[in-house]
Amino acid sequence: MKGLEPLPSVDRASAMPGSIVWPVVVFIAGIVLWDLVVRIGEIPPYLLPGPLLVFKTLIADWPILSESLGVTLLTALEGFIAAAIGGIALALLFNQSKWLEYALLPYAIVLQVTPVIAIAPLMLIYLPQQTAVVVCAWIVAFFPVLANTTLGLNSVDRNLVGLFQLYRASRWQVLRYLELPAALPFILGGLRIAGGLSLIGAVAAEIAAGAAGAGSGLAYRISESSYRLNIPRMFAALLLLSVAGIVIYMLLALVSHGLLRRWHESALRKEK
Amino acid sequence: MVELALPPSDAHAAVRLRGVTKVYDNGTVALGPLDLNIRKGEFVSLLGSSGCGKSTALRLIAGLIAPSAGTVDVAAQSSSQAIGFVFQEPTLMPWSTIRENVRLPLKLAHMPDAQSSARVDEALAQVGLADFADAYPRELSGGMKMRASLARALVTEPDILLMDEPFAALDEITRFRLNNDLLTLWRELGKTVIFVTHSVFESVYLSQRVVVMTSRPGRVSAECRIEAAEPRDDAFRTSVAYAGYCRDVSQALMQASDAQVSAAKAQA
User: Between 20 and 30 A from B67 (CA), which of A186, B12, B37, B228?
Assistant: First the structure.
């Protein structure tokens, strides 16, 4: 056929080096600046430890910190999975029945707007400690998944809906072949937010649990270090939390990129 | 009401609209009353200004919306695959390859992939996209996307092809090419084609009959038969006969518009 020329295919993957190099440069510059401030200002370690001391503490306390990191990550993972399943399932139910959406959405919003640090002590009274912490992580992470999935399911091209109607597609076929794929970028966006939030929820609940005299997650280690003025360990634990958050975000971004890279604008590099 | 099939007495009729009106929920009277007969194998264009209800008429025929009054009779509508629809936009699923987009109607009819593959390949070949079956819609130009949309409409081998201003957003050269390809397909496959357009030139080039509609609410204002020799090609576009038909259809369109304005003034 004459004159049929496909458009050039572009992928954001080729733009990756720049997106990695610049954050690393900023990170190194931040570390150097931090070290200089501590050295020049002769700030004592119980106020602000230098980056080298924090790193040494991280190595020395690794057995304790790694165990706590494992506990916190497991809690965040459980909260994330519960949020993903619960958020997507509830959005699908809302999609099938507007009445259900009208009836339940206000309560989902109530959960979202109530600060988890205020709910956690109550949860710790009514539920076993580990369950309460997971529930708090779930509460924080659940709403973005629900809201994004609902938005995605409601954002389907009207003409495509008409096409499925024309071919007399069943409700299940519309959901499987149209609504879920169309909502996928929204769902993945919600999951990326939920990944970080589940960690925040887990940490907030662990702090509350720690205050109640129990807990062994990273947040508890931070509280404990604070009480003992072991500031280098506090920084080391904070560093681990930040790295964990970044890794969670990057993993979810990688999954998102893998699923969308062939077709969705968000995963495609701008043409030059 | 939409009848599932035409009465046996109308063996040659493909579509029949009787006193059809459409009033939307917001009170907009889009159509009516509209009376229209289209024979099997006929290529008919619905021509009118934007917003005159052409697309509404097409959606009524497809069964996508219900008429507020009157009857819409469509031959052989008992099968979900008897009608193919090409929208104004390509309306492709961006997450699927062109092959999977074209396969969709057969998939919805529960046809196994092994069985549908031959028909998908045939439809892609008919529109000249055989080499782009594994591409994603975003990788194709506007004209190629529209070809894919046409292939999807043809894959079910429908009796009736409904096309809602499919080439309106394309450049002139691509539009001419697609016009020619569409005519070739129509001659080869013998489908009934109802083509909505607001282009006088396109309607004259493609159709055996041009139905001119009034402004909203859309009604039939005039019908112009285009009795040019087949097959039509680019030579027809530059012929005196073509210019004459275009003049006649343009006049009919202007009269439809004037009549509507006069009626509105009289009503005021």
Answer: B12
